[in-house]
Write a structure and sequence with these properties.
Number of helices: 6
Mean pLDDT: 80
Distance between the termini: 71 Å
Shape: elongated
Largest sheet: 4 strands, antiparallel
Low-confidence stretches: 95-99
Strand order of the largest sheet: 1-2-3-4
Structural class: alpha+beta
Helix content: 25-40%
Strand content: 5-15%
Order of helices and strands: EEEEHHHHHH
Length: 134
């Protein structure tokens, strides 16, 4: 960070928006202004998806600071931004301001150690049960 970062343009409990980017107050994690609008190959915004993987990142506070930074820096929003937050944090985290209790996508999509250990019991169709007199 440069000396230009000393002036806070926006802040909340976790994040500080400065002239050269945004910084997490607790960890010092910094996202430079030049890369805030970075996209992935499919058009989704990179930072909402990356930050969803960080256990220490509270979704509502990151979203608030990220959107404030976009506004301050004149970076336009689009539908893919909403999709990026929804995929990263879940639909409710995008809609609700109380998003602290939501599970991140990274926590949901963890591989099981033994894929064969959990198998759902096959259910018989209702027609078969009726035909059998059950």
């Amino acid at each position: 960070m440069s000396n230009a970062a000393e002036v806070e343009l926006f802040g909340n409990d976790d994040w500080s928006v400065q002239a050269d980017g945004i910084e997490h107050r607790g960890t010092g994690y910094f996202i430079a202004r030049e890369v805030l609008s970075a996209r992935r190959a499919e058009g989704l915004w990179d930072w909402p998806l990356q930050m969803a993987e960080k256990r220490w990142c509270r979704p509502s506070l990151f979203r608030e600071a990220f959107l404030a930074a976009l506004d301050r820096f004149g970076i336009g929003r689009d539908a893919d931004l909403l999709r990026s937050f929804a995929l990263g944090y879940g639909i409710r985290a995008v809609v609700s301001p109380a998003a602290e209790a939501f599970v991140t996508l990274g926590d949901v999509l963890q591989l099981r150690e033994d894929r064969d250990a959990v198998r759902a019991a096959a259910r018989q169709p209702a027609r078969a049960l009726i035909a059998a007199g059950a």
